[in-house]
């Protein structure tokens, strides 16, 4: 398949959007299921396109990966995110998603260290979320880079756990600190016994390996209660809050509301 003119124009438009600062981080809270307190935020990329408005990541991450500007995008998101949380009343943790391939880029640790250093953000407050597809390419370099990142203080998180073909191999391959239970299991766990047992197994696996578990896509109080009962540590989902832009962070998640 060749490129046509429209596709080239589109690629240029997306690329210049990066230079224009149109890619912004949204922030979704991660809560401690036992206390209900916010533990940190996941950074989720959005394209704030002057023409179309807010565009979700599925529509531009593949282009960023294919056209080689995914790490520029990640660094831009981190720069903006570090600045946004600097203004908050208390220090928070952040997590950011990495694409397949980024963990094989030897420049990654020093780039992250430079961006964090410039913002005064301590890297023991940053987690890097990886899916197993991020690991399969070149395991030897991935392992070396993962160790460099951990030496900087970053935590490693295995995202979408249970959805790939080799989740357990991935878990064994790198020193993960956090296991994220995929939304597909969480959303069916209150109505489907198999899903419930899978979630219980993943939480138990995390406990026996000494790895924290985070359940994704919690939309109801019933799911929250079941996950708490199963011993899951943290949760994320619409039940606690949707992703919001930096400008709404303080009002949405840090204001004491009068009753
Ligand atoms: P993910 O890392 O699994 O992120 C969770 C997705 O679930 C987010 O979608 C989030 O908005 C959505 N979500 C959160 N809570 C709920 C809920 O209760 N119900 C439902 N139905 N959905 C919920 P989003 O923001 O559209 O991101 C989609 C995916 O795009 C992410 O999945 C991640 O894989 C990727 N992504 C986002 N930002 C970045 C980035 O900066 N870099 C890379 N490489 N990938 C990114
Ligand atoms: Ca994620
Ligand atoms: Ca996920
Ligand atoms: Ca997912």
Automatic annotation (TrEMBL):
Signal peptide: none annotated. It comes from the Bacteria. Residues 7-257 form the EAL domain. This is PAS domain S-box-containing protein. It comes from Granulicella pectinivorans. The chain holds residues 1 to 259 of 524 of the full protein.
